[in-house]
Write a structure and sequence with these properties.
With about 425 residues, the chain is an alpha/beta fold. It has two domains: about 120 residues, CobW-like, C-terminal domain (Hypothetical Protein Yjia, Chain: A,domain 2, 2-Layer Sandwich), CATH 3.30.1220; about 260 residues, P-loop containing nucleotide triphosphate hydrolases (Rossmann fold, 3-Layer(aba) Sandwich). It is about 30% helix and about 25% strand. A seven-stranded parallel β-sheet has the order 6-5-7-4-8-9-10, sandwiched between helices. It is globular. Bound molecules: guanosine-5'-triphosphate. The site of guanosine-5'-triphosphate has 22 residues, from helix 4, strand 14 and strand 15. It catalyses: GTP + H2O = GDP + phosphate + H(+).
Length: about 425
């Protein structure tokens, strides 16, 4: 359960300060920035898919959790005796950086649905933050489990990790009602989807239930603008969706919302579009929906299930922020988009931090796709969770430091980031006596 503190860092005009009353920042504009820049701001197609579509007799409540033995053993013994597709449903949560995927994930995990999920998280960025964010917001109670895959893009270098984790899940005696995979905000979902068709073992025991794409209504048009270098990822994530959550509609006018809906419809003709705030959507509209339709995908891309051997084995190792290909699916991350991670012990002077962030975002807000971290703020014994998307940011108190070393963990993801300058500027916000 998330623990609220009695004091918090609040932002008023363009300053942070400590307040005893407010429990949490709301989204805040970087006011100075707003004043100065308004716009700131292979193989052949396998028969792996065969069993999938042939045997699927929809049963929304079917779950393999009742029996004992490994998932694989139970599925084996059930096969041939039952028309019901007993495979474990897998949902892919995707969406651009900062769109609200973790918010959705936390909502799903918090909802009392009586189900047990295995959660697989993949994070883009040098310093892993998401595990803390998920764990800080909710204790993984009731048997839910979290697996992390940091420092790699699920669509490439750590794809073999994904296969390994999924296979391991199948050998466990713990029964899951579903598996949730949160991709990085920079991921092309193609290879993740392919995994469930190209790996025969996985295809026998897992079924891809659907791709849920969370869209940031505020920044959609900006991300589609080719000049920002992330149009490809944004388009792919939307095009593959079986459900489109048009999130953050609290931040846009009704005209902007209509415009966003029209844009989504142009990019994806069939997925229901669900406008929402903080991913508040009935879970039953998202999970176990049996929405994934391979035909729709292959109609769009006849080579969807074609990929080369090296990609299948996941052994095309290379650094991130690079070019690489997946068979017919050229997938190129813009070289200029990188992450800068900061790991600094000490306590931050909130005024200095405020001043630096205000100046930094007023100049670079358009290029900063994402900022997130756990901060150690002088004057409070609690960790502060810091979240930012372009010029918007919020912070909230989290768990006490206790006897843990007070270490700031922060990651910036954006274009043309100057590592030395960012690190140096951050250090100047630390109190010297700490
Ligand atoms: N105003 C507003 N803020 C939102 C909404 N949904 C999420 N946020 C905030 O947006 C920020 C990013 O949300 P996350 O759920 O962490 O986004 P994400 O897609 O998981 O981000 P990454 O995976 O790190 O790229 C957080 O500060 C959220 O609190 C919304 O509907 N309205």
């Amino acid at each position: 359960m998330f623990i609220f503190a009695t004091s918090t860092v609040r932002r008023s005009s363009d300053r942070f300060h400590l307040s005893q009353s407010s429990q949490r920042w709301g989204w805040q504009w970087c006011c100075r920035a707003l004043r100065t820049r308004r716009g700131i701001a292979s193989i052949s197609v396998r028969s792996a898919a065969r069993s999938l579509w042939a045997s699927a007799a929809p049963s929304p409540n079917s779950s393999p959790s009742g029996a004992s033995g490994t998932v694989a053993e139970n599925m084996e013994s059930a096969s041939g005796t039952d028309e019901v597709d007993q495979r474990i449903p897998v949902s892919i949560l995707t969406g651009f950086l900062g769109s609200g995927k973790s918010t959705l994930l936390n909502r799903i995990l918090k909802t009392k649905h009586g189900k047990r999920y295995a959660v697989i998280e993949n994070e883009f960025g040098e310093v892993g933050i998401d595990d803390e964010l998920v764990k800080n917001h909710i204790r993984l109670e009731g048997g839910d489990e979290l697996f992390e895959m940091n420092n790699g893009c699920l669509c490439c270098t750590v794809r073999s990790d994904l296969v390994r984790i999924l296979r391991r899940l199948l050998t466990r005696t713990t029964k899951y009602d579903g598996i949730l995979i949160e991709t990085t905000g920079m991921a092309d979902p193609t290879p993740v989807i392919q995994t469930f068709f190209l790996d025969e073992t996985l295809a026998d025991f897992l079924r891809l239930d659907g791709v849920i794409t969370v869209v940031d209504a505020k920044h959609l048009q900006m991300h589609l603008d080719p000049k920002h270098g992330v149009r490809r990822e944004t388009v792919e994530q939307i095009a593959f969706a079986d459900r489109l959550l048009l999130n953050k509609i609290d931040l846009v006018s009704s005209a902007e919302r209509r415009n966003a809906q029209e844009t989504l419809r142009r990019l994806n003709a069939t997925a229901p579009i669900i406008p929402c705030v903080r991913a508040e959507v009935p879970i039953e509209e998202l999970l176990n929906m049996r929405a994934f339709d391979l035909d729709r995908i292959t109609e769009r891309d006849p080579f969807f299930l074609a990929m080369d051997e090296s990609s299948e084995n996941g052994d095309h190792q290379h650094e991130h922020e690079h070019e690489h290909e997946h068979g017919e699916h050229d997938h190129i991350h813009d070289h200029s988009i990188t992450s800068v991670g900061i790991l600094e012990p000490g306590e931050l002077d909130v005024d200095r931090l405020n001043e630096w962030l205000s100046n930094f975002l007023s100049e670079r807000g358009e290029d900063i796709f994402r900022m997130k971290g756990i901060l150690s703020i002088h004057g409070t014994d609690r960790r502060y969770i810091f979240q930012g998307v372009h010029m918007l940011f919020e912070s909230m108190p989290s768990e006490p430091w206790g006897t843990d070393p007070r270490v700031n963990r922060l990651v910036f993801i954006g274009r043309n980031l100057d590592r030395a300058a960012i690190t140096e500027a951050f250090r100047t916000c630390l109190r010297s006596e700490t």
